[in-house]
Structure formats: structure tokens, C-alpha cells
Amino acid sequence: MMKKHDSSFYIRRSDALIDNKKVMVVDDSRVSRMMIKAQLLAKHPHWQIYEATDGQDALEKMSDLVVDYFTIDLNMPGIDGLTLIEQLKPQHSESLYVLLTANIQQATHDKAQKLAVKCVNKPITEQCISTILEYFNG
């Protein structure tokens, strides 16, 4: 039985408190990826952030990764964000997805809702990141 004065007790408790989530940021805009990454790490310095430059890059990187959260831009060359989510979900069904878009068309929001994806409007701002974190943290 472990006693409270045993130093390993405190090490285990502190390990449990560290939030080691993994996030994939998919956006063709380098500036957007940098802003999202910086703001997520400012709030959660222990998170691992992976970046993909478009949908194809994300699919290639996800063959070796398991991540907890995705932020995915809607408008990207090649595979759009909603199509990417449709392709990722069967193998990554436990992950949470945020679709970032400046497109406020109802059809986009309806399709995102059918995929159980949170839609967050761009541009990337502190409010935008707060909305994402509220969704990720439940």
C-alpha cells in the first residue's frame, strides 16, 4: 500500500493531472495553422499538435497517428474539410472534430451537423479558439 509521504505517490498524481491530448490542425493557410497551434499551446502546453497542409497530407499523416481532436478548414485545395472528415471518421470515430469556415451557408452547417462536427466561424480569433476549447473540453 502506498503512503502519502512516499514520493512516488506524488509523481503519479502529478502525471495524472497532465493533460496529454493530441490535436491535428488541418489548414492550407500556414498563418492559420500557426495561430491555432500557438493559442492551443498557450492554454494547454502539454498538448501535442500535429499539422497538415491539406486533406491529402492529413490522410497520409493519420495512417500512423491517433489524435483526440481535429481542427479542419473547410476550403482547401483537393479534399475539402467535410469530405476529409467523412474519410477520417470511420477510423477515428472517437475523435472530436471542429470544422473551421468563413462559409456561413446553411447547407454547410447542416452537413457538418449530420457528421456530428462542430462548426466554428473563421477568422481565427481568441473567441474562435475559446469556442473550440469549450467543445473539446466538453
Overview of this protein structure:
The protein is of the alpha/beta class. It is 44% helix and 18% strand. The longest helix has 14 residues. It is globular.
Compile the SSE list and pairings.
Layout: H1 7-17, E1 22-26, H2 30-43, E2 48-52, H3 55-62, E3 69-73, H4 81-88, E4 96-101, H5 106-114, E5 118-121, H6 126-136
Parallel strand pairs: 1-2, 1-3, 3-4, 4-5
Helix pairs in contact: 3-4
- Beta-strand portion reads 15-25%
Distance between the termini: 34 Å
Q: Which geometry do the CA atoms define?
A: globular
Largest sheet: 5 strands, parallel
DSSP summary, beta strand count:
5
Low-confidence stretches: 8-16
What's the order of the H and E elements?
HEHEHEHEHEH
Helix content: 40-55%
Radius of gyration: 17 Å
Look at the helices and sheets and give the structural class: alpha/beta
- Order of strands in the sheet with most strands: 2-1-3-4-5
Please tell me the overall pLDDT: 89
Number of helices: 6
Label this structure with key terms.
138 residues, alpha/beta, 5-stranded parallel sheet, 6 helices, 5 strands, globular
In short:
With 138 residues, the chain is α/β, with parallel strands linked by helices.
